[in-house]
Amino acid sequence: MKRIEVTIWTDEVWLIRRASLPALSWCPQCAEAVNILSLDEAVVLSSISARTLFHWAEAGKVHYLETIEGFLLVCLKSLSRHFIADGRDVEGWEC
After folding, report:
1. Closest residue by Cα to residue 39 from 70, 7, 74, 65
2. Quick one: which of 16, 20, 22, 73 could link to 36 by a disulfide (CB 3.0–4.6 Å)?
C-alpha cells in the first residue's frame, strides 16, 4: 500500500495598530475630558505590565474607567502625571 504525506504550511499575520488619535472621555477625577487608552495601549505606551497598571488603578495612582463589559480604560493624563512624579520620561505622549 502506498502512503501519501501532505504537508500544509500556513502563515498568519496580525496587524495591530492604534487609531490615529486616542479616544476622549470624561474623567471624573480630573473633572475634564481626557484622552483614554485601553489597557493594552497603556501597556505598550508605558512599558509597564498590565498587572502593575491594575495595581496603580486600584491604589488610585492612575485614573480609570471601566466599560460595561468590564474592560479597563486608563486616563492618559493621570498616567503621565504619575510618570512625571516618578521622574520618568513622557516625551511623545499625547496628553
Report:
1. 74
2. 73
Confidence class of residue 7 from pLDDT cuts 50, 70 and 90? confident
Distance of CA 63 to the CA centre of its chain: 13
This prediction's pTM: 0.70
For the chain, the DSSP string reads -------------------SSPEEEEETTTTEEEEEEEHHHHHHHH---HHHHHHHHHTTSS-EEE-TT--EEEEHHHHHHHHHHTT---TT---
Task: Please name every residue paired with 34 in a beta bridge, in sequence order, or none if there are none.
Answer: 25
